[in-house]
Automatic annotation (TrEMBL):
It comes from Thauera sedimentorum. This is DUF4442 domain-containing protein. It holds the Pfam family DUF4442. InterPro entries: DUF4442 (IPR027961), HotDog_dom_sf (IPR029069).
Length: 170
């Protein structure tokens, strides 16, 4: 899941390249979401979902699918960026709770801190795989929560993942 192109770019440009990559990637662009900020240390992503003719339903509120899709890949991407190439990272599950209709642009911050990354690394060293559930909220400019989103991310070492696939297929 980790973009290989980032390894060939100097570290000071990686955040900008990741932001541009998301915003021009066709399947993400189609969600109506835009990555508006990536922290230099690649631990935080800020997303905006525009309220526009492409993202609203007939009642004038943001489509539920657009709300989910704009937020979908962020936690898995942040973990993949921090854990490196020797770890498999996949979205495993998601749950979305609608609190109020989105009738304006909405914003969400996704953050994976160093303590979480270290805990994942310890579990990977001990068990070969782990899962983590993260929460994000989509808010309007006044800070009102419109959507709560829980994402469960699966992580495994490549060796453990390969062994697991071999057991399942054999």
């Amino acid at each position: 899941m980790r973009p290989k192109l980032l390894d060939r770019v100097p570290p000071r440009f990686r955040a900008a390249l990741l932001r541009l990559g998301f915003n021009f990637y066709p399947s993400y662009r189609a969600t109506g979401g835009r990555v508006i900020h990536v922290s230099r240390d690649l631990t935080t992503i800020r997303v905006m979902l525009r309220h526009s003719w492409r993202t609203v339903n007939p009642a004038g509120a943001l489509f539920g699918g657009a709300l989910y899709a704009a937020a979908d890949p962020m936690f898995a991407m942040l973990l993949a960026l921090q854990l490196g190439d020797d770890v498999i990272v996949w979205d495993k599950a998601g749950q979305i709770r609608y609190r109020r209709p989105g009738r304006s642009h909405l914003f969400a911050d996704f953050h994976v801190d160093a303590a979480t990354v270290e805990a994942v690394r310890r579990e990977l060293a001990e068990h070969g795989e782990t899962e983590r559930t993260f929460r994000a909220e989509l808010r309007d400019r006044q800070g009102r929560v419109h959507v709560e989103l829980d994402k469960t991310v699966y992580c495994a070492t490549k060796a453990h993942y390969g062994d697991k696939l071999a057991r399942l297929s054999g």
